[in-house]
């Protein structure tokens, strides 16, 4: 009976060993692998949450930027309206008692979504009138920029000067090329 009992106990210990090796150990390895996968996915989810915190605010920012783009596009004349803008510059010079010597368009530059038309302007007259002209130029409804300016005092007359300047007028491009044209 002792041998039978020892045989039974050793069989039970062997069964436990086989159960551990073939059942519990693989199940534990699968569980640990799944836990590692879950932790990796939770980390990825946390990273995604932190990356998308500002997404709801992003739509509002995009809308604000689109409004700003529309505003600046409204300030850009069509290419065919360039002559109107040049006429406005010429009339502003006349209103400020300046003599317009030249208004000459240079070669335009095409950029992404708009073009830049440089214009050489030669003026002479009283400096106060020129200053008022610059203030009027600043108030134009179109986007303009003075890129170069050269002022010279007329030596024999007090307060009189000549100005040679280059203005850049920005406009929406219509795709056709524009040549340099002198405007009277």
SSE layout:
Elements: H1 2-51, H2 55-74, H3 82-95, E1 98-105, E2 109-111, E3 114-126, H4 127-138, E4 144-153, E5 160-171
Antiparallel strand pairs: 1-3, 2-3, 3-5, 4-5
Helix pairs in contact: 3-4
* Distance between the first and last residues' Cα: 130 Å
User: Unreliable runs, pLDDT <50, ≥5 residues?
Assistant: 176-184
Return the average pLDDT rounded to an integer.
Answer: 82
Instruction: Please indicate the count of domains.
Output: 2
The secondary-structure class comes to: alpha+beta
Helical coverage, percent range: 40-55%
Report the biggest beta sheet as strand number plus sense, adding barrel if it closes: 5 strands, antiparallel
Order of helices and strands: HHHEEEHEE
Using the alpha-carbon principal axes, give the shape: rod-shaped
Helix count from the secondary structure assignment: 4
CATH class of the largest domain: Alpha Beta
Radius of gyration equals 40 Å
Number of strands: 5
In summary, what is this structure?
The longest helix has 50 residues, at 2-51.
Descriptive overview:
By secondary structure, this protein is of the alpha+beta class. It has two domains: 2-53; 79-171, Alpha-Beta Plaits. 52% of the residues lie in helices and 25% in strands. It has four helices and five strands, in the order H-H-H-E-E-E-H-E-E. It has helices spanning 2-51, 55-74, 82-95, 127-138, and strands at 98-105, 109-111, 114-126, 144-153, 160-171. Strands 1, 2, 3, 4 and 5 form a five-stranded antiparallel sheet that branches. Strand 4 (144-153) and strand 5 form a beta hairpin. It is rod-shaped. It starts with a helix and ends in a 13-residue tail after the last strand. Residues 176-184 have low confidence and may be disordered.
């Amino acid at each position: 009976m002792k041998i039978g009992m020892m045989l039974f106990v050793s069989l039970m210990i062997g069964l436990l060993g086989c159960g551990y090796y073939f059942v519990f150990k693989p199940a534990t390895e699968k569980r640990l692998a799944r836990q590692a996968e879950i932790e990796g996915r939770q980390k990825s989810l946390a990273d995604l949450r932190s990356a998308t915190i500002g997404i709801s605010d992003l739509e509002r920012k995009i809308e604000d930027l689109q409004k700003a783009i529309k505003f600046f596009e409204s300030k850009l004349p069509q290419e065919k309206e360039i002559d109107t803008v040049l006429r406005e510059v010429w009339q502003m010079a006349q209103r400020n008692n300046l003599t317009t010597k030249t208004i000459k368009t240079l070669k335009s530059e095409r950029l992404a979504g708009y073009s830049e038309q440089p214009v050489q302007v030669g003026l002479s007259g009283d400096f106060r009138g020129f200053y008022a002209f610059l203030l009027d130029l600043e108030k134009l409804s179109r986007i303009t920029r003075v890129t170069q300016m050269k002022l010279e005092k007329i030596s024999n007359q007090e307060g009189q000067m000549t100005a040679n300047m280059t203005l850049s007028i920005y406009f929406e491009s219509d795709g056709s090329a524009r040549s340099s044209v002198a405007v009277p």
